[in-house]
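Researcher: Here's a chain I'd like modeled. Treat it as a single chain, no partners, no ligands.
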Amino acid sequence: MLKVPCIYSSCKRSKVSPSGADLSGADLISANLSDAYLSDAYLREADLFRAYLREADLSMADLQGANLEGANFDGADLGGANLSGANVTFTYMNRSILCNTTMPDGSVIYSGC
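Model: Modeled as a single isolated chain. Structure tokens:
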């Protein structure tokens, strides 16, 4: 499994670009992944409890079954992402792009397209 070198610190796009990375089941509790480029990343069953993903690019990411409770996705790009079965309790998604995004209940949202 890929180890992201900035867990619990800042991950700027200029520093870390694990696009397409397999982070399935990863423990990313309270991780600061603001501005991270995680397009096409596999984050199935990952634990992102209270993670900070402000302005992160998670377009086309696979977040099925992930724990997103209390995570901050302010301004994040979740276009085309799959959140089926994910826990989004108290998840902050203000200003997030949810274009063609599959939500936890299986519905598809077209917000910010």
